[in-house]
Amino acid sequence: MKQPADHLENMEKRKRIFHHALEGNVLKAIELTGQLAQDILENNNDLLFDLLSLHFVDLVCSKEWAEALEFAQTKLSPFSVKEQKYMEKIEGFMSLLAYENPVECPMFHLIGLDYRQQVVDSLNQTILAHFNLPIHTAMERLIQQTSVVRQCLSLEDGGPPPFSLKDILKSQ
Fold first, then answer.
1. I need a surface site. Which of 24, 57, 130, 132 has the fewest CB within 10 A?
2. DSSP state of 27
3. What is the dihedral of CA 74, 69, 47, 26, to 10 degrees?
4. Cα 39 to chain center, whole Å?
5. Going by C-beta distance under 8 Å and a sequence separation of 6 or more, which residues neighbour residue 90?
């Protein structure tokens, strides 16, 4: 199946955006997202807030306290005027500043890779939806369907699941 060149180009841009956001260069990811499709973040305040909050977390983890505080005041606090939920989120992020070692903060999950991955996945899905592309590749859907069929077959027979290379390798 041949895809148009612009889909391949957009895929490369998405990969760069994804990489920048995961590696801690969120502002570059936001810039590249704007170049790819300007209205994506303009129309999604939740996603933009989450991305900006990742940058705030990066500043806190780098112990750039003054810059983090200024960033929160200039970039995050305007969201709190729009909706109360943002104020609650900002309070959680600001609590990271109270600890010299943010890992000791009760909100430490905000500095973890899981939170970052969740935000970056949301960005990727939003970009895919913007271009009317499927969230999952054909290969991912095939693997999911194969897994379901395998589970159904093993339940029907009432016995052990069919051949599994992984199980064979484990037993040796």
1. 132
2. H
3. 100
4. 19
5. 72, 76, 77, 79, 80
